Amino acid sequence: MTGREARDALPAPPPPRETQIRLWGRSLLYSLAGICVLVAGEGVFLWLYHPPGRQPLGTIALLFGSAVLALLLGTLALAAGPRVGLGAIRRKVVFSVGLGALVAFGDVLVTARLMLVSTQDAYVMLMLLFFALLISLTLALSLADTLRRAIAVLMHAARRMAAGHLDAPAPVESGDELAVLAADMQRMAASVAEAQQTQRALEDARRDLVSGISHDLRTPLNALQAVASALADGVVAEEPAAVAHYLRALDVQVDRLAALIDDLFTLARLQGPTPRLTLAPYPTADLLSDLLERAAPVAAAAGVRLEVTVASPTPAALVDVRQIDRVLDNLVRNALQHTPAGGEITIQAAPRGERGGEVIITVTDTGAGIAPADLPLLFEMYYRGSGQPQVSGGAGLGLAIVKAVAQAHGGRVWAESPPPGRERGTLISVVLSAMTSTQRGSTTQ
Fold first, then answer.
1. Angle at which helices 89-114 and 119-162 cross, to 10°
2. How much is the pTM?
3. Domains defined for the chain, CATH in brackets
4. Residue 411 and residue 320: Cα distance in Å, rounded?
């Protein structure tokens, strides 16, 4: 057992002595108030029905004095608790009922004498009182056992939870406050288990992120180091063509490093608590037209056919154009990486939702597709898929940025593989808010 586990296994420290005294004092005041009310009612009864020639003041004073004395003794004894052998619930119940029985018997005897009750009637009263007290004591002990069993269940569940077994049951079905406490403990354990699971997932994500960043930074840095060393050592100083080649390689690696840093900065900003986007209506047809102009040369060089269609009428999308351009570029780049030469990539846009309140943009490729087990993790950082080829130069952040940008816009993104009606390939859909008649100008989130 570690030091922390040993500390956790210790019982909770008791409240300060001043707090205990204040709590017991408050309880005593409430009890005294209740006794005053009961004795006052009893006094009214005795005053109305006392025997002729006798005043009930002595009986009323006896009842009040004995009740206060019993209350003080009981409160002091219960406050002392374990120091006087009253640490368990059963003992406290037996003590309380026994003290009450003694006071009741004494009150009956003295009251019967003051009220001129015959000896035979006094015996009958004592027998009835004794029988009632036995019933009360039996019920009190039964209640104490019920409470003790419920508390034992809660203590056992609490100890198991403290030991890390958060699935420990607390089956208390008494229907009282202890059952509510047991249900609250179960909910608390479920919340703690969920928090721990989330923490583990975050820790795994952090390790994956650090590992992925380290890997992706190491590649361009190693290349930069090799080129810089070659140039510094003068290995290619007398060959202008070789120097130019090394400088171009240096420029490529710097661009790659800058792109990776830019991706990480974008993700950090978009996944923050308040991502800032400048939203404005932008024609959806213009978004895809600009995309086609940027992607067509790359697709042609890869031998992939690129087709863009926009359903009519498709409303303008309410977007941050710079970020959405990045989303579309990442989707097309991802599709090109997994589409062989001779394949086809189709980009479509159409209205969606009631009265065209949304715009859906889909990118469909004719690649090998994605395994079903990989689909839920497709948009996670540095996840390339167990069955996917490792494309050189890919940092594994493209689709994570797509998801972050879509969510920052209040939209959503998902993937289907294969697309509906096809045997292979992948379809990725992005849904964005559309410009409606009630929205004008630009909005800043």
1. 160
2. 0.51
3. 3-171 (no CATH), 205-270 (1.10.287.130), 278-444 (3.30.565.10)
4. 12
